[in-house]
Amino acid sequence: MVELNYQGVFTRNPFSYTGGMRTTFNDVEFSSMTYSECVTFFERFMHEDCKKLYYYELGISQMEGLNPISDDVKYVAFISDAYGTDGVISFYVDHIGVGVDGWFDDDGRESCIDGENEDNIDELRNVELEFNEDIMHMNRTLNDLFLSKLCVDEEMDNNIIDDDDDDDGEHLNLVSTLIPYLMSYYTGKNKNQF
């Protein structure tokens, strides 16, 4: 009996095949097929492409027991290993082509990202960031009559203020300033007051 798991996605942490469908075949003789015939059969059944095909070797964890089948040699090895057993043979279809066979090393631990070595990954994890506290942020509300009224005192301390500004330290109450402005805006009176 063959179980086909398809339309799912392999997830890495924790390792699993999620979101897919499962169909069982009792009357198909896979041992008389070649690799390409098997893939063609599955693609016709699923109405989807099969980028990579895996079978699960019984009695082992899914992470260690998942074996790729990519050619006739590996398909014949699959037939001799798994086919003819009394249990269920599970196939898993990778529609995206992720290639999960490179995700883990021989001990079952996550392997490095393709093209990276472990020293570079450790360097990326231990990056120290330095901040320059002397940087002043521009006040983008300085020339906007409406938005400049919304700035609170703490924000003004962090912004650059024009030296020509004759600020005597008196600040208007936000509510008393905005209400007349909004009223004049909506009624159409005194638009140029500010």
UniProtKB/TrEMBL annotation:
Highest taxon listed in the record's lineage: Eukaryota
InterPro entries (UniProt xref): PB1-like_dom_pln (IPR058594)
Domain PB1-like stretches: 3-95
Pfam families with a match to the protein in the record: PB1-like
Protein name (database record): PB1-like domain-containing protein
Organism: Lactuca virosa
Taxonomic lineage of the native organism: Eukaryota, Viridiplantae, Streptophyta, Embryophyta, Tracheophyta
